[in-house]
């Protein structure tokens, strides 16, 4: 709840044992890490805007998780959350991001020139290429905790910045609450429209409050660069196009992001970033680069290979259905993207996707021709 | 205009830096609560936070004005519950063009006082002009006063009376901490274990029940589950599910209590058939016994003479009572005057699955519309008289005779 949760002080009338959540059925990162001692230590703390431990963990308490999928189970309400509650956040981050330590430094590299190749993923297999990330505006609370006034201020700032983009990036903003039926249908047909979340993981964190106030979608006239405002993060930035030219997608991504960052800076604002956590976002799983670079690719043969899972793991890639994170693959077409977010730079992650997808397509061609792929098996990256 | 807007959209910490000098950035994070609150008022005046209610159709949206919001935004109850938290469910759920929902909840007993400026018009709107500032609500749980409470069982399949009760001193489901919720469970379950004879029973904690127990409770139509309605989840009452939630019922299976669902407790008396008098008698007896048992331990129910029993949703103030039957009315339900007859009798129809369901076949759930301004005895009598009238109409239609729309019943004594 925004701006001063003194309800937290009222809870101090009860002991830590009385307040400690029952996590016995739970399987998420927060539940694995939170002990009664840690709860007792942290429960009287709050960030300057009043975000508390119970606010942080509510989504993880309400959503025990799945026996097979490990969700994070906690969110940040503002930038200071990661500092004030580091005793909980650091082990969660370490667990989620492959052993990333509190002393580790994260490298940011948004220079698309540093990418090797990537402009010629075989379009007979690679149907589309996409890169997304998120950005938070320093000084404002994050979606689980922000007030209506803050959310509207974020929207206003974003509109002003995006309206100044030119050339290939020139575009238009569509506020969710004002769009006409035609605009809405067009955005659905373009696969751009986001809607009020239904996932209890998101709803329980409070990020859907006041929907659709101050939420909207901006995209350029060419429909290759898209920004979501006030969904799960302040901004989600997406570059995408049909075909296999990931290099072009990533170049536009970096150019657009850098331009947007400059436009915000000109107005006295910057993105939340530090050299340990990289870009700071609502969910700890998106720290660092917040980057998911992926393709929709036809792999009907490779996907049936017994070592498919192992190959992906070694390439540090993950598969999803073409409907996104909670869907299954249809017709042998998979969404293949980087598994990591933190501890690798943007260029490094996109390089992994480019190299990995090239390898998978080669494997697919071999299997089509009835040949073996043993000699192509990759090492663990 | 441009200047104030720029100040408004400057981030909190940046503005503090500018005001206090860059070197004091470190101390900005150590601001105590009162300064943070004052700062917020400067950069985000109530007008910046005022909800957009233009597409909304609920009682809260109808009553809310920028002036009221400005006066209430920075207030809090002694438990530090705010008006934004009261109205969140109404902001998030604009409502249906045909159904007017309430659109706000209380976090504690004091909410109704601290935010009276908003609750009072909502109560008036929902309860037919009842003014809690000037009127008194009658409480009467003397079931012996009820007459003709035995329905023709060729028409009435089952009879049921429900209400809710809140434990004074503990926050309500939207606001309560885990400790408070567990305390409610402890207080109520301890009291219920003191019930004897026809009322003796047992408690099933939602988190701990076995699969077999769960199936039995489903078969008996006793089990409640985590709410899916966004009206309820947006109010925050489903947090920490299923911690400290459970169902108690007596061995006879005709007296049932839900713990920590939408209210601290929901109390239900029900049985097959048409003996509404007996259902209400058990209801009153059970309620009085439970109240006595909690009082022995120093607790009491939330109640005052202006609003009666205090519950989470303003729609349930007063008696919190819904007395109803499942009744077959194949001919009457097809008569075009059915709706008007119900309206004048101050009854409402629902499907037999409850408030959001449609009727199957010719069987309806018929119950009282009103909750506040009339006593429990008055409301149950109203249902008894009304249902008897409906059965009379059905019988007349069976015989080919005509029926009459009754005169409207008076709202409440002024």
UniProtKB/TrEMBL annotation, chain A:
SUPFAM superfamilies: Glutamine synthetase/guanido kinase, Guanido kinase N-terminal domain. Residues 96-110 have a biased composition (Basic and acidic residues). Residues 96-116 are annotated as: Disordered. Residues 125-367 form the Phosphagen kinase C-terminal domain. One of its GO terms (biological process) is phosphocreatine biosynthetic process. It catalyses: creatine + ATP = N-phosphocreatine + ADP + H(+). One of its GO terms (molecular function) is creatine kinase activity. PROSITE patterns: PHOSPHAGEN_KINASE, PHOSPHAGEN_KINASE_C, PHOSPHAGEN_KINASE_N. Gene3D superfamilies: ATP:guanido phosphotransferase, N-terminal domain, Glutamine synthetase/guanido kinase, catalytic domain. Keywords: ATP-binding, Kinase, Nucleotide-binding, Transferase. CDD domains: creatine_kinase_like. Residues 11-98 form the Phosphagen kinase N-terminal domain. The keyword Hydrolase does not apply. Its EC number is 2.7.3.2. GO terms for cellular component: extracellular space. ATP binds at residues 128-132, 191, 236, 292-296, 320-325. InterPro entries: ATP-guanido_PTrfase, ATP-guanido_PTrfase_AS, ATP-guanido_PTrfase_cat, ATP-guanido_PTrfase_N, ATP-guanido_PTrfase_N_sf, Gln_synth/guanido_kin_cat_dom. Pfam families: ATP-gua_Ptrans, ATP-gua_PtransN. It comes from the Eukaryota. Belongs to the ATP:guanido phosphotransferase family. This is creatine kinase. It comes from Xiphophorus couchianus.
């Amino acid at each position: 709840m925004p701006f001063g949760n003194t309800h937290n002080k009222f809870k101090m009338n009860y002991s830590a044992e009385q307040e400690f959540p029952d996590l016995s059925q739970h399987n998420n990162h927060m539940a694995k890490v939170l002990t009664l001692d840690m709860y007792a230590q942290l429960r009287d703390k709050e960030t300057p805007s009043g975000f508390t431990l119970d606010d942080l963990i509510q989504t993880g308490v309400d959503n025990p998780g799945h026996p097979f999928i490990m969700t994070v189970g906690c969110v940040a309400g503002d930038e200071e959350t990661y500092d004030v509650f580091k005793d909980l956040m650091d082990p969660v981050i370490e667990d989620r991001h492959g052993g990333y330590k509190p002393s580790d430094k994260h490298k940011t590299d948004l220079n698309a020139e540093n990418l090797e190749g990537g402009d010629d993923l075989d379009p007979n297999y690679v149907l589309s290429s996409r890169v997304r990330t998120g950005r938070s505006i320093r000084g404002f609370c994050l979606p689980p905790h922000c007030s209506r006034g803050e959310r509207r201020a974020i929207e206003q700032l974003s509109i002003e910045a995006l309206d100044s983009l030119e050339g290939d990036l020139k575009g238009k903003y569509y506020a969710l609450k004002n769009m006409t039926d035609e605009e809405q249908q067009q955005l659905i047909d373009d696969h751009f429209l986001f809607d009020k979340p239904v996932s209890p993981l998101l709803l329980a964190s409070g990020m859907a409050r006041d929907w659709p106030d101050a939420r909207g979608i901006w995209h350029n006239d060419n429909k290759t660069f898209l920004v979501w405002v006030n969904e799960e993060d302040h901004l989600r930035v997406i570059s995408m196009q049909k075909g296999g030219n990931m290099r072009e997608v990533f170049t536009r991504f970096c150019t657009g992001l850098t331009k947007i960052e400059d436009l915000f800076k000109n107005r006295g604002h910057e993105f939340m970033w530090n050299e340990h956590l990289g870009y700071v976002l609502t969910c700890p799983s998106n720290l660092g680069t917040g980057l998911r670079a992926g393709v929709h690719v036809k792999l009907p043969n490779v996907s049936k290979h017994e070592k498919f899972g192992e190959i992906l793991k070694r390439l540090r890639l993950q598969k999803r259905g073409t409907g996104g994170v909670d869907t299954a693959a249809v017709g042998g077409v998979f969404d293949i993207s980087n598994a990591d977010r933190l501890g690798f730079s943007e260029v490094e992650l996109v390089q992994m996707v480019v190299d990995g997808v090239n390898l998978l397509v080669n494997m697919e061609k071999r299997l089509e021709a009835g040949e073996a792929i043993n000699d192509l098996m990759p090492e663990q990256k | 205009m441009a200047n104030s807007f720029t100040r408004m959209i400057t981030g909190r910490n940046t503005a503090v830096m500018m005001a206090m000098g860059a070197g004091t950035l470190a101390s900005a994070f150590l601001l105590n609560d009162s300064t943070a609150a004052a700062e917020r008022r400067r950069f985000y005046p109530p007008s910046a936070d005022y909800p957009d209610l233009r597409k909304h159709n609920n009682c809260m949206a109808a009553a809310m004005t920028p002036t009221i919001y400005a006066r209430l935004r920075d207030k809090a109850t002694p438990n530090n519950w705010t008006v934004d938290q009261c109205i969140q469910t109404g902001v998030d759920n604009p409502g249906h063009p045909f159904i007017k929902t309430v659109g706000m909840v209380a976090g504690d007993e004091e909410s109704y006082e601290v935010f009276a400026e908003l609750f009072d018009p909502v109560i008036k709107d929902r309860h037919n002009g009842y003014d809690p500032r000037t009127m008194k609500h009658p409480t009467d749980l003397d079931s012996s006063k009820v007459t003709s409470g035995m329905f023709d069982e060729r028409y009435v399949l089952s009879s049921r009376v429900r209400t809710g009760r809140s434990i004074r001193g503990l926050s309500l489901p939207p606001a309560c901490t885990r400790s408070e919720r567990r305390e409610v469970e402890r207080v109520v379950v301890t009291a219920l274990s003191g019930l004897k004879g026809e009322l003796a029973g047992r408690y099933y904690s939602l988190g701990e029940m076995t699969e077999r127990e769960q199936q039995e409770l489903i078969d008996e139509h006793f089990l409640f589950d985590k709410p899916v309605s966004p009206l309820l989840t947006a109010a925050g009452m489903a947090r920490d599910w299923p911690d400290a939630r459970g169902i108690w019922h007596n061995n006879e299976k005709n007296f049932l209590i839900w713990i920590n669902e939408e209210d601290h407790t929901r109390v239900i008396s029900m049985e097959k058939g048409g003996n509404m008098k007996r259902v209400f008698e058990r209801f009153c007896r059970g309620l009085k016994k439970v109240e006595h048992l909690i009082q022995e331990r120093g607790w009491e129910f939330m109640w005052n003479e202006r609003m009666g029993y205090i519950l989470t949703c303003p729609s349930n103030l007063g008696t919190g009572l819904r007395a109803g039957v499942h009744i077959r009315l194949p001919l009457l339900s097809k008569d075009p005057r059915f709706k008007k007859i119900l309206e004048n009798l101050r009854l409402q129809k629902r499907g037999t699955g409850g408030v959001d369901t449609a009727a199957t076949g010719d069987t309806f759930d018929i119950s009282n519309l009103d909750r506040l301004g009339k006593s429990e005895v008055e409301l149950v009598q109203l249902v008894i008289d009304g249902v008897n009238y409906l059965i009379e109409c059905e019988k007349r239609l069976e015989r080919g005779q005509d029926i009459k729309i009754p005169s409207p019943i008076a709202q409440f004594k002024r």
